[in-house]
């Protein structure tokens, strides 16, 4: 208990129990690094205009600002920086510092005494109110304020600073010597060993950081967390750094916030809450200057504290708690008339609303308000949410695209690159929802090959955001659908690299990968494999998991269990208004009915699915439904009718559908042709059968693409029969032989051929 | 461990020649040991341990001349170092540590060596405290540390490995390790120290500070001596295991330490911790009579006086202590409490600040300061003070509770839930946190959770007796009249069983509700009994009378009228069957408990 360091207690800046933040805000404490910069300035002054060339002078001037405002750096790095702009000055600075550090205390005192001379005189070298002048005056003032023992300490610190640089230089020299022929191998080996720690040193300073260094470290890590998580420190090491930082500077509230973000990364609800609240407790102090609950001061931070807490609970899926916290934030914001905060609250409110039900009244209201208060970010975020909701609600594509286009205008105007990315990702998703794979593909590629605005601004590649993950996942799924499994797995590999398993958006690709694998397993008839994947999918999305569980059960002929599960799922999805899933479930139910040979019962189910998918314009599902419908009609003995509706579906399927679906569609067409040919006169019948054979060939090609052997086997069997009917013995025998090969490879399940779609 | 002990013990035959007995059968022997160790501690400048031992020795019966312990034998080495030691001890006593260390350099005897190392350690500590005041800006202030620690650790660990350290040396080594935040190593070393020199209270006390929970305590292998009993009692108090602590202290008193002011004060503190205010107060008063110039623990005493709002007593205590020594932490704290009771909160905060300046390690002052700022409505300063308290000691439940209260005042009931829950975690059986939690849930309209909290608060023993009323009112709101009535009945029973009829405001409400409840249930006897009770309270008198009239009317309409009214308040049989509160403490299981 008593081991907590004593800085907490002896706090000369504390009055009335509050540590005044602005006192800590003073960053102008004299440090050895600052002395080195002062030496540089005075050398520049001494050299005058003549000694340094114009070009060098300009380079030096450019260097000065970052030196004055940046964090403290080591002496060697400072030398290097000066050396790059003006070698001769670097030399003289080095000599001055050496003299001062190896001399006596009075040298430093003398130096500071001389500093003020630069202002005096008729034609001063430095103007008093210039940037450099202000810096000089700050430093002189800060130095003059130091007590005797502090001055002495500063001097010893300077000596240490200098000696460290010397040591490093000496070590480097020694290393240079090592590279002489005989010691070469050893030298390189050792250097490699040395490189590792020095590389780490760059990111994380093990000792206490100065205020500016700490600020720099925090803002760097925070922006990395936001934009490119893989480049940030790993959660564990970042936490270690933060703990270290807080140990030496417990008043650094921002570190707590970063620690909160870091805990979010690893989904640690306990420590993230702890850090968040700690941050706001601390922030309240620093903003305590004005005691009013007004715009500034701690009333403001209180509101945002509650709001952040709501966000935290929302992220962890505690919607009820989130709502309570949000109510609190709203109430406080209302009491103090903070419209901006209220607006933020409102946008969170509709997010919450979305999670729990789907009314978009709030959302529309929020967008209007946000536009009114001139918060473009929130406004277009709102529009995007609105579009998403409308898409699920079955609004037409042109309206949605219009809305997105309008918000895009806003984004480009305000350079909200993050939102542009989201917008494109959303377009991809919407096109996919509508079953237009080509358009989706195109949008996905647009985002991936677009140069982010951020890249121009900061030099940070902002490509590890959620939108990229979404787009890449879509891309992988699209490729998988088209049978390009190698490409899909390559995309997934890339995803894994970009979003390592413990990062925020890793769940997206995990789900996507397992879905693809599941699809493969089902096609290949490896049901046990599929079954084991179901658990993984359930962990990530219970709905998808349940649906897939039912499919596996169905495939394993456990129909009653499958039926039970599907009914439950249906009710749940209808309640959640997840139309996409409802239609899928309906299709699965219909399939169950055929398996029980109850095609008449399947028909109304299918019609319901068709109506739904038409209403919501889910073209992909609509075509699938039509396929099933046609199949049922075929079985019920009305192949002509089936052919009619198939014509409706075949076009979109061939244009946008998955390869497997294309194959199934062609196969079905062929079946229908054959079935309806029975009624024809012989000449026409032969024509019909021949065209069926052609269709079957096409289907076979499609199946071959996705390597669906079972289907190929069926097609071959069918083709053989047709050739037989047409009396083409040679072709028949070829097909029969191929069939036999495949049949030996694959065990037969004994399901009649005709009972398959 | 046994082998290690025997080796180390062999190196210091003088101190524990006779060994320490494991029980209290021979008080004379104990007294002798105490006197001896007091002398040894004093010789080494360990004033607090010496003081403790002397105090305890004083409480035992005096020894006859023949049995007085002989002065410790002087070895050859001691004789060699005697001059240096004498000089250094003199310097040490006037706090010239560096000078003392200088003259002790190279001394071989254990005593001189200890004093040498100890003065180096103290010199480092002193310099560190001085440095902190003028460091080079805020950047450096966290970096100030005792420079001597590292060197001391290296030297001591060498000696430790060579098994050349005696009990005092081990103690110092442990302290150095603890200061370097090497807690695990420090614990091991302190345990070793207690094995070699069980009489040295300082080592035990350090161990107390390092042990954070009961589990840790279980896994320590401690020497089997009578000192262990004192240690266990002390640590039970620290770990809030008050029942066990009180038992231990009682048995110590029974054995013959009844006069020890140390034990008396510890018992008083224990009673304070379980909020048995009256007992604690009487014990403290007794203690003040025995030891009128005592300053230790007087801050706890003042807390008690504060809680009972005993202004004159507190004022007397404050003035008295101020006369004795006004620059003591405890004195400042008492004065702070005094001002707080007089509602002069600025001055109170000032005194708590002064206490912190006098001893930065004094934890309670931060929390108390927080309370003062709360009183001054300076919420941000209060939050800061509480946060400081938490940073110093994460287990300070009062600070968590205070933070919760602050946010509650700021009308953020959801936000403060977190803080109350932290406080509740630390003190699971304290009804105040539970009631506070319940109130927050009530404000958030989470009535189910609120009910759970209130019931639990009642079940763990409600201090303020408000949980039941609140529970009853909740049931009333939810129109669960049966449960509401039961709660009111239990509440009334509780109040009356207490004996002292404090003017409880809610008693009348309870009776009024019960009267109406029975009236609705057509239990005329009970209804009229309750209505009559109502008449004895000012605010419900009229209602009571009106209800009585109504009952009379209805009864007259009914066929029989039993005019005799059961004089005392009785419960209907169905309810009284389970009226002894079951007090089953089920897991609280709040649905919305996240972190």
Q: What is this entry, summarized?
A:
The complex is a heterodimer of chains A (757) and B (595). Chain A has 757 residues and is an all-alpha fold. Chain A has helices spanning 21-25, 32-51, 54-69, 75-85, 87-102, 105-115, 131-145, 148-178, 184-203, 211-227, 235-248, 253-265, 269-286, 297-315, 319-335, 339-356, 361-372, 376-392, 397-414, 417-433, 437-449, 453-458, 466-481, 485-498, 506-523, 527-540, 542-555, 559-576, 579-595, 599-615, 619-635, 639-656, 659-677, 682-706, 709-726, 729-745, and strands spanning 14-15, 18-19.
Report on this structure:
Chain A: One of its GO terms (biological process) is anaphase-promoting complex-dependent catabolic process. The complex is a heterodimer of chains A (757) and B (595). Chain A is an all-alpha fold and 757 residues long. Helices cover 77% and strands 1% of the residues of chain A. Chain A has a domain of 141 residues. Chain A has a two-stranded antiparallel sheet. In chain A, β1 and β2 form a beta hairpin. The N and C termini of chain A lie far apart (73 Å). Chain B has a domain of 57 residues. Chain B is 69% helix and 0% strand. Chain B contains 32 helices and no strands. The longest helix of chain B is centred in the first third of the chain and has 24 residues. Chain B is elongated. The chains are: A mainly alpha (757), B mainly alpha (595). The interface between A and B is large, with 67 and 54 residues.
